[in-house]
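note to self — DONT lose this again. spent like an hour looking for the file last time. sequence + predicted structure for the chain T wanted, 113 res
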Amino acid sequence: MSGNKQITCVSILAVIVVILSIFQKTNGNSNSDHALAPMSEKGLLPDLRSCVTNARNIPNCVDALKQFRLTIIQKECCVVLVSLPGDCFGILFPMRFVFRIALKATCKLLGVF
C-alpha cells in the first residue's frame, strides 16, 4: 500500500512540474543587458582566454573577489569584472550570482556606479 502512495505522489509531482513548466513565461535571450561571451573557434563553448584576458591584467582582481577580500578591490577591477559577459563571469566564479552581488555592492561603495 505504501508503494502505491509513493508512486501516486511522484506521478502527481511530475504532472505539476510539467504543467508549471508549460505555463512559465521566459524572455529567452531578448534581455539586452546580458552580453554573450566570446565563443571559441568551434563555437560551442566560451573562449576561456578571451574571458580572462582583461581580468588578469589587474593584479589580484579575480583572486580578491574569489576570497571575498572586498577591501582590496579597486575601481579598475570593478569596471573590468562588471563588464564581463555572464558566461565569462560564470567561468571565473563558481557561484556567479553570489559573487556578482558582492562585486556590485563593493563597486557601488567605491563610487563606480
